[in-house]
Structure formats: structure tokens, C-alpha cells
Amino acid sequence: xxxxxxxxxxxxxxxxxxxxxxxxxxxxxxVRASYLVDRLWRTQRLNRGSALVVIGAGAAGVSAAVRxxxxxxxxxxxxxxxxxVMPLQAGNDGRTVDPVQYDWPAAYWNxxxxxxxxxxxxxxxxxxxxxxxxxxxxxxxxxxxxFNSLLSxxxxxxxxxxFHSKMKALPWSRRRRMGTRxxxxxxxxxxxxxRLDLDADVIILANGLxxxxxxxxxxxxxxxxxxxxxxxxxxxxxxxxxxxxxxxxNGVLVSGAGDGALxxxxxxxxxxxxCAEVLETVVGALQKEPFRSSWLADMGGLWHWEDHAQRATRxxxxxxxxxxxxxxxxxxxxxxxxxxVNLEDWQAxxxxxxxKIMAKGRxxxxxxxxxxxxxHFTWCYGLNRLVxxxxxxxxxxxxxGLDPRQPFSALTATDDQSHxxxxxxxxxxxxxxxxxxxxxxxxxxxxxxxxxxVYDFKEKDYEGLVIRHGIDAVDFFDxxxxxxxxxxxxxxx
Length: 493
Prior knowledge:
The chain contains 12 helices and 29 strands. By secondary structure, the chain is α/β, with parallel strands linked by helices. The strands form 9 sheets. A 6-stranded mixed β-sheet has the order 1-2-15-4-5-10. The chain has a 5-stranded mixed β-sheet with strand order 18-17-22-23-24, with no helix packed on it.
């Protein structure tokens, strides 16, 4: 009998892939990995005598390995090309991660800790599987440190998880004789050193979601060199009072409309760590009844529209249908934010945000702009969509006539002005001339933008470019994969 959960993750028989789904929060990855290993154990694909190889030591990979070791599985191997676990997050002490904020509007969205405390009413949802570690709102590097401690801490039993750092997995081969099903060859990631062959009954692929798209063409490019913006997990100065640009004149352009773009737009404008902190400030400022309760009910009701959009997305077949679903969903969020602005307490909300945002000094909130390809944001966590729209309304309140949004726009090219751009730092704080295609829509891909009419561009200068154009699908062992939405339930029997 087929198992629907295992079918969902199956890459090929006895090989399962975790890195092909969105949304991609760290907590979502932990939940997926834990459910997968639990179901492999329940169906006896894994047992005490098994050998498991997990490729990739991010949050999903470590969670899978630790959960497997909790069942006293004989051999658990964790493979990572970098020196340490969670390598993307390990060096970032500036970006804060919250394990439950994206469960908004569930009642516990601002508890800042996971697993959820007991006894907690199960009116919404709760994870019932054992968690690999207690997590709380903290900086990314501290999350990485917590996961690193799992490899030698009390969460594992003897023998320990074998962590193969600085090693790269090559395509596995299937055994024809009795014994383990696979042989997985490992070679040093640097290219020099001894090959190691691991036996495996089950392989879990947890080696990332793909390549982050932070690049655009140079105007005068004579090679394949492209401008590369600051990557999402690279430490930045976005929350500095001056945004890390002391002589900011023209502004900062955030290009994109997904979770990464919206989070960074909010951080640049507010200087606050998380979208949850912004919404907590807004809700805390609402006092007058019955308007407060009415608006909170409207806000919570957005989850109804999220559910409708999720269901519709599973059935659409054409790109324009996806755009239609997103437009309708986005309009509901705009309506709720407009209702907030029309409340008598809106001035109190603005004052509360002023107190938070200006506590360390005045920020150039009128010089941060958001460019995206259609009249709506793309698929993202509801909290990011709501908070970004509230922050936009806050900016427009302070600067009458200014709208920081640039819809129907696509950043296509840039040029460095009187300086050479090298490396992946994005030349933050230095002048860049950009070309933006106008009147674009969601269905316009890279090929269409390359041939965009020359008369339908606008040009502008910015001192900062934040490029959040999503995740590019990558080839994994010659098999093409693509991210697809998957709302993992938080409780399964």
C-alpha cells in the first residue's frame, strides 16, 4: 500500500528529497524532515539495523539525522560540503529568525518559541512530534550554533551521528547483492583528498533549495559577469540608522515581491528585527473598542482568503490564472490595511511605530522603494504581505504624495558609476545606474524581458540595490527539479 506522505517526498525508490518545496522557513524545514523520518520508521523503510545517509546539513538535514538517531538507527551519516552545519546562517548575527511568526494568524504566532508550550489549546494547530531542539526567536548564527550542538549533545545516543564535513556526495549506485541498497561515494569538496564510500538503505536529500537569484546584467557587459547583490543570509547593514549608506541621496531599490524582498523592505524602513515585531507594535497601539476587535477579526479572517488561494493554486494550469488568484488575495490584504488606516487609532499606530523606529535616530524611510512585476506581491507568507503593506501605508502617511511601490516594473540591468563592482557584496552604498522595464506582468519571463521595447524603460540612480528574484531551480544528479508550494500540516496522526 502506498504512503501518500512518502510519495510526496520520493525522489526515487528509497531516496527522498526535502529541498524542493516552498514555503521555506527554517521551522517548515524542521517539520518536513521530522515527519519524513517518522513515517519512514513507521513503515519500516528504516529500522534499528538500517543505514541512513542524509546529504546536506542545513536545518532540514540536521533535523532528519537527529530524529533518526532518536530511533536508535544503527548508522546515521550526515554529509555537508561546508565545514559546519547550517553554513548559510552560521555567520549572520544580524538577521533574526522567529520559529512561529509565520503561523500567523494562529493564536500563538507571537509566542517566539517552538515547540509550543503545554497545555496549549489546540484550536488552531500544534506540532505533536518530538522536536529536535527547543527553539526561540534569536539571531541566525545562534540558530546555527543550536543545531551544531545537536551533533554532540544529549539529543543523540551512542553511537553518535557521523558528520562528514567538507565532503561532497556523488551520484549513488544501487547494489545488486544482499545487504544495504546503495553505495554513496563521498569526495572532498575541495577536490583533494581520499574518497569515502558509505553504505545506505535510505538516502535523504536535504542539500538546499537551489541557487538564490540576486544577479542582473551590466549595461556594458562583455562577458558573463553580472552584478551580484547582497545575498539573503549575508550579514548586512540594512538596520543601521543610515541603512549603511552615510551619504544616501537617491535611495535604495528592493527588487522582488516574495518573502525575501518584503522582509528586507520592512527591515530597511523600520530597522526592526522581524515582521512579528512590527505587527505586535501595531496591535498594541489599538485601544478603542469596538473598532479594535473589529479590525483584529478582519485581520484574522485573512487566513480564510489564504486558504482559498492555496486551494485554487493546486488546480490552476496557466500562468495568468496564478496571477488572477494572487491579485484577488492581494486585494483582500489591501482592504484590511485600508481599514486600519481609516480607524481613529491610526494616528496612535503611527506614533507607536515612530517611537520604535526613531528610537535610535531618524531613518531615511522615504528613500526605500519596492519594485515588482505585477499589481500584487507574489506567493509569500501572509505575515510578510500584511506587514509590508502596513509599513508602506506608514511611509505614505509621513510623506504625502509619496508611494514607495513601483508595480509593473522589472529591474533588468545596472552599471557601476565610477567604481568597479567585484564579488558578491553588491557594492552597497555606491552609485548605480539602473534600467527598469515598465508595464511588465507576472507572466513576463527572462526571455521576454531581454527583448523588451527600448522605449518602455525608465532609468534611475540608486546607492543601494537589493535583488530578491527568488530561487533558481538547479540540476541535481542530472535531474531537473523545481520548487513548488506545499503547505505541510502541523499535525498528522
